[in-house]
Amino acid sequence: MPRVRGLALFLVAAGLAIPKNAMPQAPTEASGSGRTMAAALRARGLELGYNLDYEEALAAFDQAIAADPTDPAAHRLAAATVWIHALFSQGAITADDYLGQAKSDVARQPVEPEIAATFQRHIDRALSLAEQRLRADALAADAHFQVGAAYGYLTTYKATIEGRVVGGLRTARRAYSENERALTLDPHRRDAGLTVGIYRYTISTLSAPLRLLAGIAGFGGGRERGLRLIEDAAAYPSDTQTNARFTLIVIYNREQRYDAALQVIRELQQAYPRNRLLWLEAANTALRAGRYEAARRAVEDGMKRVAGDPRARAYGEDARWRYGHGAALVGVHEVALAETELRKVLTLPAPEWLSGRAHKELGKIADLSGDRAQALHEYRTASRICRDQHDSPCADEVDRLMVARYR
Could you tell me if 299 and 324 are in contact, meaning their C-beta atoms sit under 8 angstroms apart? Predict the structure, then answer.
């Protein structure tokens, strides 16, 4: 199961209203105008969702289902929206949650039964309609893609929400094989390359024994090939294009290709200006690159957007904004305001690993103020939390700071 869950950055937002509409049980073939309307409504739903307008996005997908009840895509996208709401409520909102560098709290709290049932209803319908298409024409690349895409969402839901990685192996194999088949039948269907690319890239990052097991299970590897497939999907107009771009943000950060990640973020900011979390992502990426002034500009711009945004926040979101601001201020040596922000982080609901990083930055402030004893106290606290949370970048930086004073 991939650690790089770029799909989980799809439509990150809150305030989801779960639709209560009954699903059509015996859909009839839509007319040409119905299919055209459904496609436009799906595109509208994606635009709204990526701009964090979730209730409106779900309404658009619902209308798309009504316009063309035989198309599995709208059900698949509605299921994805419900899934992301569950992740959002648990605080999985930036690349930090998908880099595999810190313990994730995702899947530790069960979702509300209504949310789980709504996801299952949509994904079951998407799978049923997609399988019908596949039985009708086994050589249709789109039929294989629709089946594979739906199984991909089902697999990721099992892993991130239900915590069933092993239990999702069968559906993961189906997602991978169906998308590979779609690519074989139509090499121009680059949207099918997203799932294949994610699996290939992720498998390449595993240890040799795990790569062997993945091969036995039917998954191919290959870092360069996987990344190329994802990049191709990000350049290919489809309902997975933006999703592929979010995936690239995670991968480029993992590869320390920060300029490439920031370029993708800038493109997404232009396309989805109401998605405030893109500014937080830009700040975090700039922090990893050591570009503190750029991080400060991004986070302060984002905080202005937050102040004017009445929509609900994710779990831990306020703490993340303050941490990003505080860390950027430490980098430019504005310690008074930085300390206020970082102390506030420690009082707000947030993932535990964020507290470890806040203590690390507070240690830097003490070093800059000439109080080495206080700095070491903060570093020791940070070390304990970071190691407990498996946050190796934080723990490694703390080890260096305990040897050499931060300047």
Answer: yes
